[in-house]
Specification:
The protein is of the alpha+beta class and about 550 residues long. It folds into 3 domains: about 60 residues, Ubiquitin-like (UB roll), CATH 3.10.20; about 150 residues, Threonyl-trna Synthetase, Chain A, domain 2 (Threonyl-tRNA Synthetase, Chain A, domain 2, 2-Layer Sandwich), CATH 3.30.980.10; about 325 residues, 3-Layer(aba) Sandwich (Rossmann fold), CATH 3.40.50.300. The protein is built from 15 helices and 22 strands.
């Protein structure tokens, strides 16, 4: 009997197993203990399902819900079980995963103009619980691409057939629960039994699929916050894309192949300019009171370009505008708080001299002249270089920085004088109706490209820092986005087709021995869905130029 050597990093055990042994069986044999149930595994730093059978010597590292990969695998599997339940009970309804919300995902189930009722949803919940209690297996098979397309055509899943036709692969992984089939961008759990925390609740014309809350060790569902501005933003972009028949990557790829990319770039850029003019007009309509615009957003959301474009639109409307950066209000390096690892925590608002910022803003509102600070990131010190600023009647100052929506930042500033904008890449195009693109992926790819182009960081460096950045965003940025007066979506419909030509070579340099390899491998697969888009027709004022280069703005 042929054997294979497995080295388990979770407990430093090396053991031989017969070839054909699944990693689920190996995890059980090794008695791997995690904070939560084992849900997936890294094999030589690449994500695999527990059904995988190693055929060569392998380093393995099992993971559960304590990791981002584990939570995504859980959420993906949960949606599949929900889809299977609806497909079994109400096969005439079309199920769509629309976009993420604070507690999980907004979904719809429609039959013509009919939408799901609360009583139908209760039946679905009951059926899902039965599937989970029975620990129904989730099977995955590799099929020739043409065969997979035939199967999805039989089930009228045309968004999947469009994607697979433009993907250019010989084989496709198809998942089964009973008679329900589906295709997923990422991996799934091997059975339904691990899905013990979820909820479904009616919202608008659809419903919310609530997922486990990582802040409570995934023991309860996330609390839903009614993010009306963000949800309406997603909905507006969805309607716009539907009008152009560009709901999914398959639609976009077909449009590119038919020679429509020039039109798509122009329309996407114009749409973004119109949205920026709307927010500028909103500010001007409140010009008697609003003197300070706070513009916040997570990493690589395009805050800097958005602030500069907003200033132009305000000038078009007859308002003189000045810009300040919260980065210039950092406390001196030695006064920066430390995180739990003893490193400087630049993400916390305590790294900002809030009192000094409040003093300067109030001085401006009172018509006083201030000397603007400049923070030297090399020395870690604040300095003054004689740059003065004084607001005249109806002048506005735009302040850009990650903490712009935090009430602590503006605790001593008259609230009626403030207008708050949240900027993020709220990616609305989907892989298909059951696979959405996380906005975090859009921003991570932007950052990988920018970091290597302009900061000399490798893709591996950016990926390794990303989890710490995301932890800071969840703690210091995302809780306050509900306070925004306006949400600006910085995502451009075509941008991932452009970014891929830069990002893939960067990602391919990540070595298999690196902990970043799994994420790099995943992003390469993700970007492979997109047809290439050239840069020639992207205008110099485009937000995507902040990451690619060639912008007419100064950064």
């Amino acid at each position: 009997m042929k054997m294979v050597t497995v080295t388990c990093e979770n407990n430093n055990v090396v053991k031989e197993y017969p070839i054909g042994t699944t990693l689920a069986a190996i995890a059980c044999d090794l008695n791997v203990k995690l904070k939560s149930r084992v849900i997936g595994v890294y094999v030589n730093n690449a994500i695999k399902e527990l059904s995988f059978t190693p055929i060569a010597a392998s380093n393995v590292r099992f993971f559960g819900m304590e990791t981002e990969d584990g939570r995504e695998m859980y959420n993906r599997t949960l949606f599949f079980v929900m889809f299977a339940a609806i497909n079994e009970l109400f096969p005439e309804y079309k199920v769509t995963l629309e976009y993420p919300v604070s507690s999980g995902f907004y979904c719809t189930a429609k039959k013509g103009n009919e939408v799901f009722s609360s009583s139908q949803l209760e039946v679905v919940i009951s059926r899902m619980k039965e599937i989970i209690a029975a620990d129904v297996p989730i099977n995955r098979i590799e099929l020739p691409n043409e065969k997979a397309i035939e199967l999805f055509e039989e089930q009228s899943l045309t968004d999947k057939t469009n994607l697979l036709r433009t993907r250019g692969s010989f084989f496709t992984s198809v998942y089964y629960i009973g008679q329900t089939i589906d295709y997923f961008y990422g991996y799934l759990a091997p059975t339904a039994g691990c899905l013990d925390v979820f909820d479904l609740s009616i919202y608008g014309d659809g419903f919310i699929l609530s997922v486990p809350d990582e802040d409570n060790d995934c023991k309860t569902v996330k609390k839903f916050q009614n993010e009306k501005e963000i949800i309406s933003n997603y909905a507006a972009h969805n309607r716009w894309q539907e009008a152009f028949h560009l709901d999914t990557i398959g639609d976009l790829n077909e449009a590119i192949e038919s020679g429509r990319i020039s039109e798509i770039i122009k329309v996407a850029e114009t749409n973004q300019e119109v949205r920026m003019h709307v927010v500028a007009q909103n500010i001007v309509d409140r010009a008697e009171k609003v003197r300070v615009v706070l513009l916040a957003g997570p990493s690589s959301s395009g805050k800097t370009t958005s602030a500069q474009r907003l200033a132009i639109h305000l000038q078009i409307l007859g308002v003189r505008c000045y810009k300040l950066s919260l980065d210039d209000y950092f406390v001196d390096r030695e006064k920066t708080p430390l995180d739990e690892n003893g490193d400087y925590d630049f993400e916390t608002i305590k790294a900002v001299d809030v009192d000094f910022f409040n003093q300067q803003i109030n001085d401006l509102l009172e018509g006083k002249e201030i000397e603007m600070p400049r923070f030297d990131f090399y020395t870690g010190k604040r300095s003054f270089k004689g740059e003065k600023l004084q607001l005249k009647d109806n002048d506005i100052v735009v302040v850009e920085g990650i903490h712009g929506l935090n009430p602590e930042l503006i605790k001593n500033i008259p609230q009626e004088s403030i207008y708050k904008i949240f900027v993020s890449a709220l990616t609305t195009i989907s892989i298909d109706g059951h696979n959405i693109i996380p906005s975090t992926d859009n921003r991570l790819i932007r950052r990988i490209v920018r970091d290597q182009q302009f900061r000399g960081y490798r893709a591996e460096d950016t990926i390794n820092r990303w989890q710490k950045i995301r932890a800071g965003e969840k703690k210091y940025i995302e809780p306050y986005q509900i306070h925004a007066d306006f949400v600006f979506n910085s995502a451009l419909l075509y941008e991932l087709g452009v970014l891929k030509t830069y990002a893939i070579p960067m990602l391919e340099r990540v070595k298999e021995t690196s902990r970043a390899y799994s994420e790099a491998h995943r992003l390469i697969k993700f970007l492979s869905y997109f047809e290439n888009v050239g840069v020639d027709e992207i205008p110099p004022t485009s937000l995507v130029r902040e990451f690619l280069g060639g912008s007419s703005f100064k950064y």
